Amino acid sequence: MRRAVLALGLMLSLPAFAGSLREPVLAALGGVEDVPTAADLQGLGDNVPAELLEIAQDSSLSHTTRARAVIALGWFPNEPSRSWLVGTLGGGDGILARKAAFALATGWGDEAVPLLQPALAADDVQLRLAAVRALGRVDSVRARASLDQRLAVETNATVQDTIRKTLAR
Amino acid sequence: MILLTTMGLLFLGCNGKGDDTGGASGLQTESLGTFTTDTGGLTGDIPLTIPDGASSALVHCGSYGYDTLGTAWQIKDPAGADYYVNEFFEPYAATKMRVGNQDDYLPVLFPVSPDHDISPGSWTFNAWVASGGTPKTFDCSAVYRVDAVGSTAKIDVNAIFVGLDSLGLDSSTAPDDADFQAALDKADALWASTGLSIGAVNYIDFTGNVDRFSVIDITDSDSSELGDLFKADVAGPQRAINVFFVQEVSDAGGATILGLAAGPPGAATVSGTSKSGMVVTASALRDDPAEVGLILAHEGAHFMGLFHTTEKAGDAHDPLSDTPECPVSANTDGNSYLSRDECAGLDGDNVMFWAPAVDASSTMSSDQGWVLRRNPAVR
After folding, report:
1. Which of B227, B235, B239, B281 has the greatest number of beta carbons closer than 10 A?
2. Structural domain containing residue A168
3. How many interface pairs between A and B have CB atoms less than 8 angstroms apart?
4. Does the CB of B195 have a partner CB in chain A at under 8 Å?
5. How far apart are CA B357 and CA A30, in angstroms?
6. Is the pLDDT of residue A19 over 60?
7. Bridging pattern class, strands B102-103 and B3-10
8. Is residue B347 part of a domain?
């Protein structure tokens, strides 16, 4: 009996590890038209950020599931996530890079502006558009200055139009 | 078996009103006229005549702008009885029908439940367009499905590829693309229990502004980008469902939406309106073609008249009698949504559950099939 109590105490004292939350986090990331919210995930426990990071990196999962995990990383800002998001922003995977732009803007606000600036000059038009929108969400003096500077050299009409609309808000 | 056809180009354009079904047999159209709302947003009576043998009717009105929402206010049957009234109508009485609040263009499909069928004769329709006291003027028309509805049916698909170079997917590659065909097969299999199958697939390249539309950006208050995509003049048959395959749909916070159908239900067989299609996020095609097929089946069913069996919070359900409803009380963990596990044994495995999954969602009901097979786009 004492051993059982001891074992239970040991179990309770061990930190939960990423992986144990896989199923509930994946369930929270579900929905076709309904996207997950921070509230959906916040109630699942302290290790949600670690699980989200694992899901975001798990190439056995679909890109859409990983993309939703990347967005959710912005709701739980920490250094491991920031580092991974910066790498993903420049990593060449279209949808994940776009999500990383939004997650950095959501999680780090004005601090993310210098991290997002390189994406404004990316070859991928959709990544440039995502960076514009992410900076629009930050909406700080530095973010708007970055958009102004990009507008001066941007050649794509859709990106130009999006920057103008973003700055006009 | 899925028939393969390669169609020509597609170009952006809006013909304003979209009441032409291209002379498709089995359909009748009726131009209902031009109407102006009063300061309360109501149109007054709009008469329509449902012909003998009609199995479904689609009334569609617009356009009235993306900044304005419209919905049905009251529908009266030939006996003068209320077939449907809006929840703000007094006295309100619930019926087996749901009509959403639609920006810019209003499609209203009925019946959407076998418990609430239609009869031929003179009907009356009233729209409510919430324009803040400013009268709105727009056209209304109707499409009637008048050919026979059997126990099996086919839906043709206009598959429109919008800037999917990164997936190597366009009208020339898709007919032989194993992943894309697997996605179509998945949708076909999910619909099979309803008697519905995919008929001809018309492969079409989108030639409008790919930069703008390959990632669709929407917010809670602005879905104009989606609506403008659906207005595209599709070089395919009108008695089909327009499926726009894009890189993704993204919300204001950047979150990926897996798919969206106009409406729902959408403006079936009506072209050139902001409610004339559905969109599927195709980014998972190479990882999980079955996911793309599931989205196609789910959104296609929305477009053709089905609603979620249970919504995310469990506070709303479809109007069908044979789809189990997962109640709010099933939310045993007290979080903000009902999971498939919590709805197991009810509708957790239904394709039209709010959060279906490839490995867990495969069922559809008899009533769901009844609705799908009556849609004007189906034959």
Report:
1. B281
2. 96-169
3. 118
4. no
5. 8
6. yes
7. unpaired
8. no
